[in-house]
């Protein structure tokens, strides 16, 4: 979210993100590595280096980020479910969650948090 807010600006260091949000820089390094490998963020080396989103926040969905950091979106392992009715229910729940995440962009999340006095903190 921090990179989305600063999209179009100079690269943002993880140290500055960590300080702004009271997070561990080491934790952020663990998050940014798979995002960089997947092509959602790019790193810039040098004295004024850091990280930027590789695409505009309007083109990156919450689903993109969550799948990269957490894997497939599934609230439970329903494939093992013996009851076909329950299995169908879990599939519908999974699909509904995926639809919301895939239709919510980082720009949407930034707009929602800037519309209120309290900003959201998204934990993964």
UniProtKB/TrEMBL annotation:
Q: InterPro entries from the xrefs?
A: TR_Rrf2-type_CS, Tscrpt_reg_Rrf2, WH-like_DNA-bd_sf, WH_DNA-bd_sf
Q: PROSITE patterns in the record, alphabetically?
A: HTH_RRF2_1, HTH_RRF2_2
Q: Which UniProt keywords apply?
A: DNA-binding
Against Pfam families, the record matches this protein to: Rrf2 (PF02082)
One GO term in the molecular function aspect is: DNA-binding transcription factor activity
- Which Gene Ontology terms of cellular component type are present? cytosol
Matching entries from NCBIfam families are given as: Cys_reg_CymR, rrf2_super
Protein name per its UniProtKB record:
Transcriptional regulator, BadM/Rrf2 family
- Origin species: Marininema mesophilum
């Amino acid at each position: 979210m921090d990179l989305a807010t600063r999209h179009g600006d100079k690269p943002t260091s993880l140290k500055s993100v960590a300080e702004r949000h009271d997070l561990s820089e080491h934790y952020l390094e663990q998050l940014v590595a798979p995002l960089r490998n997947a092509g959602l963020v790019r790193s810039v080396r040098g004295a004024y280096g850091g990280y930027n989103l590789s695409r505009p926040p309007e083109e990156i969905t919450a689903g993109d980020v969550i799948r990269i950091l957490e894997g497939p979106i599934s609230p439970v392992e329903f494939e093992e479910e013996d009851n076909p009715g329950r299995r169908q229910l879990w599939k519908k729940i999974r699909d509904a969650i995926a639809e919301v995440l895939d239709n919510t962009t980082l720009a949407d999340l930034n707009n929602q948090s800037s519309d209120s006095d309290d900003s959201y903190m998204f934990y993964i």
